Design the sequence.
């Protein structure tokens, strides 16, 4: 007769709700450095209102005689797990004040003063937004740099 032994394993896990949020390059947009992560960079390079090159995936619009705008689409990817939330609120805020240039995400102006609501009923999955940076003709030549802080909150 064969001998045998037995054992048991008790398993416990506490599941908590979660949200994941990344930014990624849109198929028709500027290639974002670190695409698919929660911290990306949109590096437009050297641009001018008249002449020069425009990077692939970027649109330059001249609004003479006052300003010019650069635009590129990008993807916002928000997913939720283990909760009954059917949508989310997305806000954006500039990290640093910019009293010269106008920053917009799609048609919403973004400043450092307070978080602007981009949507209060965002659908989970991938949504395309457009970064618009309007530069007045009075802007001094040099580097324009800022960070847009996005927050996705499950509703």
Sequence:
């Amino acid at each position: 007769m064969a001998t045998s032994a037995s054992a048991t394993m008790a398993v416990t896990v506490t599941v908590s709700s979660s949200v994941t949020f990344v930014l990624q390059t849109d198929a028709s947009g500027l290639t974002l450095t670190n695409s698919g992560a929660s911290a990306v960079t949109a590096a437009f390079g050297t641009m001018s209102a008249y002449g020069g090159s425009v990077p692939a995936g970027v649109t330059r619009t001249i609004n003479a005689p006052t300003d010019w705008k650069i635009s590129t689409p990008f993807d916002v990817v928000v997913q939720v797990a283990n909760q009954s939330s059917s949508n989310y609120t997305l806000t954006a805020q500039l990290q640093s004040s910019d009293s010269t240039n106008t920053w917009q995400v799609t048609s919403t102006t973004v400043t450092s003063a307070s978080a602007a609501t981009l949507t209060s009923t965002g659908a989970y999955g991938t949504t395309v937004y457009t970064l618009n940076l309007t530069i007045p003709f009075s802007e001094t030549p040099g580097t324009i740099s800022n960070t847009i802080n996005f927050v996705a909150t499950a509703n």
Q: What stands out?
A: The beta strands are 18-25, 59-63, 67-81, 88-94, 102-105, 108-109, 116-122, 125-136, 148-154. Residues 29 and 57 are 4 Å apart (CA to CA).
